[in-house]
Specification:
This protein has a single domain, classed as MFS general substrate transporter like domains (Growth Hormone, Chain: A, Up-down Bundle). With 425 residues, the protein is mainly alpha-helical. Helix content is 79%, strand content 0%.
Length: 425
Amino acid sequence: MIPKAEPAVIAPSPHAWAGMFRALRHRNFQIFFGGQLVSLSGTWIQTLAQSWLVYRLTHSAVLLGAVGFATQIPVFFLGPVAGAFADRHQRRAIIVSTQTAMMIQALIMASLTLTQRITVWEIFALAFLLGICNAFDIPARQSFLVEMVGREDLMNAIALNSLIFNAARIVGPAVAGILVSALGEGMCFLINGLSFSAVIVGLRIMKVPARETGLPSGGRFAQLLQGVRYVRGMPAILLLLALLGWVSLLAMSYVVLMPIFADKVLGSGARGLGMLMTSVGLGALIGALWLARRQQVQGLDRIVPWACAGFGACLILFGLSDTFWVSAMLLVPAGFCVMAQLASTNTLIQSMVSNEMRGRVMGIYTSMFLGMAPFGSLLAGFLAQKFSAPAAVIFCGTAAMVGASLYSFRRRSLHADAYQASPEI
């Protein structure tokens, strides 16, 4: 029998901004916050440097999309399996292992690039290995939040986790744009490899009580199926995941085309690419701060479709622009909207799911969020090659607006179900 979700307990406050960083009162989350900020900055440095390296070696929009596909396709297939794995084992130990593997991957990339022996096929292979690591890392990391802060501060921890991600997105690409121009991509990979030590050391010094784990009757496959049945039995979660998958497949893939915009459309080079990605990160950071001040889950289900539609509108305008500063400014609200949708979706799902099912549900969430992206990367690369990069981005924006409309239409009939599952919504 599948247990019912435990409602999230969120203390109201008359001053919404006063408790913006309340999850940081927990020592473990303080350590996690600092380590992730350093590590994720390095990750964004590598992400931008890798895109630029592929484009420099190939000048191919299709191969840019294909490398994105190689990085993310393991998440599509392994996400639910990794979620069940996170429910069976200690999540902190899983994260330490995946972060260590990602450190090794970055150092190999650095070695091959600095010695000028890197080829596009080696990039493909290493990107695929990174995708496998991410498939196991993300569900474990998302599920681990509740172990650090408890349910009462879970919503704030999710928002602050998004804040870390996007603060790093601001710092990382800006630094990467300078480093790629001055020192080359290899130094970016080396810096990323070294940055993982911060989060690995932080995780090891945390004091986290051992969580009871084990297999249900029927073993691993039965546990995996139980997660799928759990999601199917909660229409509100299923609808949120459907919109997330739609947007990840058809809209968020615009990012893989940024090197083409920086070079061909806007004529701004590697530094311009860093500034464009920083604009996205700035908007997302503002969105994360805005959500961090919220004390209640109530109303987030209305934010999701509006944020999705706003993201689509910004992408359409970005695709029509041929002026660098206009394009950079449009990416700020685009980043805000996509962060508002993603963080709201994550919070809504985690507020409805029971603790013992959290890893499996977040594994499915990961498959929808990152697992659909590789197919989107291939599609975006194909559209850019067949038509143009601006036409591909306009398509992405239109798809996001269509998805928001479909979600809003279906949401009205499911609102009662969502309310029953989690009265805070």
